[in-house]
Structures are given as C-alpha cells and as structure tokens.
C-alpha cells in the first residue's frame, strides 16, 4: 500500500489523511483504546490508519459493519468494545454533538488529475448557460477550484454557497443535504455536482433546472433530466399504490443521524386519523430482509430518504417519503411537492411558505 507524506498529511491510496490531527487529538483526549470506522470503499485506508495508530501505542479495533455516512457513527460498537474514542473516515461531522469522542478524517483526494482531464467536457456541457451553481462530495472539495476557475475563465458566473443542514463545508453536497446548492435556486440557471450521480441526483430531484453530474472516476458528465423524470414517475406510482393499502407502518431508523421519532409519531397519528391501520416499525438497517416479513402492505420512510429513491426497486411494497405520505392523505398536492422541492426532507433547504405546507398538517396532530 503506497503511503506518502504531503505536508502535514499522509497520502494513502490517493487520499489525504490527517494522521497528525488524529494522533494529537487522541492524546489530548487521553484515549488509549480506539475504534476505527469506515465505509466499504475506504477499508484499505482504514487498515493503514489503524496500523499507524497501533505503532503510536494505541489499542486499535476496526468496525466491520456497514457505514452509510456521517449519520451512521458506530457509537454502540465503540461502547461495546470499551473504546475511548472513534476514528471515522470519509465523512464530515453530521450530528451537533457526538455521543463518543469522535475524530473525523475526511480522506479528500490528494491529486486533481482525474478532475482536470474532465474539465474540457464539463466546460463544453455548461458553456451555454450564463450561471452555474457548483457543489461536490467532500472527497473532491480540495480539487473543485480547477473547475470553478476554468468556468469563470470562459465567462460563466460560478456560484458556491455554505450548506444550512448537515453538511459543513462550502459547496459540500450529501445524499440527504443539497442545501449548499438549493440556496442558489434563484441565482443560477443550472447546477453542476462533482462526484457521482448519487450526489448530483439529490439536487436534480428538488429543482426543475438542468443538473449535471461530473464523475472523475468514470470520466463522464451526465445530464440527469431523464433520470429525474423517471424517478418522479416512480415516486408518484408508489404514492398511488400506498393509497390502496390499509395496513401500513412508519419506519424509524435507530441510526444516530437518521432517527426522527417525533416526525414518525406525528405521521403515524395522522395515518390513523386518515383511517389507516398504522404503527411504528424500528430497525437499524432498513432492508427488504428486515421489514418485508412483517405483515404490512406499505411503509412511510422517516430514515435515510435515499432508501426510497435508490432502493425502492428492491422492495416489493411501496416505501414512500413523509412528503409523499402527505400527498397520499391529500394534505399536499404532488405538484407542490415537485415544484417546491419538498420531496426529500424539506426543512433544511426550504423556508417560509413552502416548508409550512409540509409542517402545517403535522403540527395539528396530537401524538
């Protein structure tokens, strides 16, 4: 495994890792036993980080569970392992306060060569617009300037913004948080997201403006309009399926950053008032194997909204989002959900009248 020094950073598998920050933070905390957590794609980096920490005298264990984001910190595993602290790779802080002392190593890409080689196609794709809102996954943030500078050089107005929900860095986009882009809605003609289709699809589903995903790994720039329209048709179809179901459940994830029990209780009460046989169903991992053996005909998903977007095809039953449940109960129209960007959790990037349309019927419900 290639490991190099680049200033204060250690470059492992092409990613910059601030080992010095981790070591100094652990020592400042007086931690001796450490749990290292990473998503599947960063397990090689995690192994090297653990090795370096062990060489520094720390007692290191690794989490082998799935890790879906900063919303999915392994607090329970850390407690079970007697860890004094967590090292979490690949994400920025998601929660306002960690239950266990947690040190975040973002693992941003150290070199911008792959992105530079894609810049000509990016420029050709968006040059017909006067203005563009730009964002990226955290791994590409340090390289984003090569895109911004070139687009400005050819005359485009390029805007970035700070997020207002769970993301923390300017221009940062998460699967569940595109507030850094959505806040630019009235100032740009199009959006460009550097990273994967997954990250770009979040904004594509919440705006009617053209959205493009620039993926340095595949060396492709993709227009997401057709994907957006197909998914919105699928979402509407599942709302119609849900309307016909009598026995339903509201899904609650117990993952630290996904647990929205208050919202689930309100939706559950509203469904009962609407005449559905409804209850709350809790799980850590929400998968077909964990929920479909229950006797429910359909579900409302208050956990990660992307479960309903990317994984609906894996479920044989409707797994609709809270705003879609409002449509099924005639509290919102489908046009309002689509036109005002309410599909995924709307409170992070919509304010005033739009957000109130979602919350008003829920506030009237007693739990």
UniProtKB/TrEMBL annotation:
Its cofactor is [4Fe-4S] cluster. Signal peptide: none annotated. It catalyses: L-histidyl-[translation elongation factor 2] + S-adenosyl-L-methionine = 2-[(3S)-amino-3-carboxypropyl]-L-histidyl-[translation elongation factor 2] + S-methyl-5'-thioadenosine + H(+). One of its GO terms (molecular function) is 4 iron, 4 sulfur cluster binding. Gene3D superfamilies: Diphthamide synthesis DPH1/DPH2 domain 1, Diphthamide synthesis DPH1/DPH2 domain 2, Diphthamide synthesis DPH1/DPH2 domain 3. Catalyzes the first step of diphthamide biosynthesis, i.e. the transfer of the 3-amino-3-carboxypropyl group from S-adenosyl-L-methionine (SAM) to the C2 position of the imidazole ring of the target histidine residue in translation elongation factor 2 (EF-2). This is 2-(3-amino-3-carboxypropyl)histidine synthase. It comes from Caldiarchaeum subterraneum.
């Amino acid at each position: 495994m290639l490991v190099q020094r680049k200033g204060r950073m250690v470059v492992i598998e092409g990613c910059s890792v601030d080992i010095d920050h981790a070591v100094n933070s652990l020592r400042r905390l007086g931690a001796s036993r450490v749990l290292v957590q990473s998503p599947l794609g960063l397990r090689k980096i995690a192994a090297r980080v653990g090795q370096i920490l062990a060489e520094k005298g720390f007692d290191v264990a690794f989490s082998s569970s799935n890790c879906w984001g900063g919303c999915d910190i392994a607090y329970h595993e850390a407690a079970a392992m007697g860890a004094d602290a967590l090292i979490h790779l690949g994400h920025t802080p998601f929660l306002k306060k960690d239950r266990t002392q947690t040190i975040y190593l973002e693992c941003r890409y150290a070199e911008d060569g792959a992105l530079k080689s894609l810049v000509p196609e990016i420029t050709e794709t968006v040059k017909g617009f006067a203005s563009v809102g730009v964002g990226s996954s955290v791994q590409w943030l340090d390289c984003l300037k090569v895109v911004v500078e070139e687009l400005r050089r050819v005359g485009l107005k390029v805007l970035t913004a700070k997020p207002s929900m769970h993301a923390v860095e300017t221009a940062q986009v998460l699967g569940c948080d595109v507030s850094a882009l959505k806040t630019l809605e009235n100032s740009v003609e199009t959006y460009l997201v550097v990273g994967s289709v997954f990250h770009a699809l979040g904004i594509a589903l919440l705006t009617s403006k053209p959205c493009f995903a620039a993926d340095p790994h595949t060396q492709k720039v993709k227009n997401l309009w057709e994907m957006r329209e197909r998914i919105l048709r699928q979402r509407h179809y599942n709302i119609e399926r849900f309307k016909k179901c009598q026995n339903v459940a509201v899904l609650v994830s117990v993952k630290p950053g996904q647990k929205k029990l208050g919202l689930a209780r309100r939706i559950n009460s509203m469904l009962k008032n609407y005449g559905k046989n409804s209850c709350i169903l809790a799980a850590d991992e929400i998968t077909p194997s964990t929920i479909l053996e229950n006797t429910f005909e359909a579900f409302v998903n208050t956990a990660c909204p992307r479960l309903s977007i990317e994984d609906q095809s894996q479920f044989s039953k409707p797994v609709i989002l809270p705003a879609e449940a409002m449509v099924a109960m005639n509290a919102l129209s489908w046009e309002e959900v689509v036109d005002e960007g309410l599909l995924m959790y709307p409170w992070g990037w919509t304010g005033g009248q739009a957000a109130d349309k979602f919350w008003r019927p829920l506030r009237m419900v007693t739990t």
